[in-house]
Design a protein that fits this description.
The chain is of the alpha/beta class. The protein is built from eight helices and 15 strands. Helix 1 packs across helix 2. The longest helix has 19 residues. The radius of gyration is 17 Å and the shape is globular. The relative contact order is 0.18.
Length: 250
């Protein structure tokens, strides 16, 4: 990564779209982040209007990184589990770049969070296999081996308990079903145990807003593998998206 570059990091989530300008050399947010509710339905047209509003708010003229809840291949959206299905097949980088007249790079949102944690957070200096899970509206995942990202994993969509895992253990499900912390911690422990058996990670990091409440459910996580909260919390997606934009062009 070229040091000293700045980028606008945008994190598109199921409930909110957040942005801030970022120093990619330090991971520092240069301005207070702005959050705008994710429109319903979250179509390319409605999300694009939010992106343009964020660019205008920050008076931004440089590179933009956008974390997006989908598999992203060369800027093209390949899945739409927690976003409107009208995104399928859309080249988001081309769409956003044309509308903003600025260079835009897109990355899976959990991968963005993982990039941030490995540069500036709990993953810094970690070797071996590290699995980051973002627990929010759904479950995002980022897998690293010796700090190198394996992109576009979708472990929240693995079949578990007869359904997609995120339908059982996403943070939104805890609220929807009014689960106690012991009930939620038990569910999460089962899911993490399943991933542990399949992937044998050396470390599991738990991110998303619920990482701030790690102490409320950590006692129910009884795995042999070390489990830690991510450090950058809800800023991780913004910082990681900016890092992605600051890297050398493909």
């Amino acid at each position: 990564m070229r040091s000293g570059l700045l980028a606008l990091g945008i994190d598109v989530g199921g409930s909110g779209i957040k942005a801030a300008s970022v120093d990619c050399a330090t991971g520092a947010l240069l301005q207070e982040r702005l959050r705008i509710e994710t429109p319903t339905p979250a179509t390319p047209e409605t999300v694009l209007e939010v992106i343009k509003a964020l660019v205008k708010h920050f008076s931004w003229k440089g590179p933009i990184g956008c974390g997006f809840p989908a598999v992203i291949v060369k800027g093209c959206i390949k899945t739409a589990a927690n976003i409107d299905s009208s995104w399928l097949g859309v080249n988001g980088e081309e769409l956003f770049s044309k509308a903003t007249e600025l260079p835009v790079r897109m990355v899976n949102d959990a991968d963005a969070a993982g990039l941030a944690e490995f540069r500036f957070g709990a993953g810094l200096g970690q070797s071996g296999v590290t699995l980051l899970l973002t627990l929010g509206t759904g479950i995002g995942s980022a897998l690293f081996h010796d700090g190198v990202l394996v992109p576009n994993t979708e472990f929240g969509h693995l079949e578990f308990k007869g359904a997609q895992a995120e339908k059982f253990v996403a943070a939104s499900i805890r609220k929807k079903e009014d689960l106690s912390w012991s009930e939620y911690g038990g569910r999460l422990n089962e899911y993490l145990g399943h991933l542990d058996r399949v992937f044998s990670p050396d470390l599991i990091l738990l991110g998303g807003g619920i990482s701030k409440k790690f102490e409320k459910y950590s006692e129910y996580l009884v795995l042999n593998t070390k489990v830690m909260p991510a450090r950058l919390e809800n800023q991780a997606g913004i910082i990681g998206a900016a890092i992605h934009a600051c890297e050398e062009k493909r």
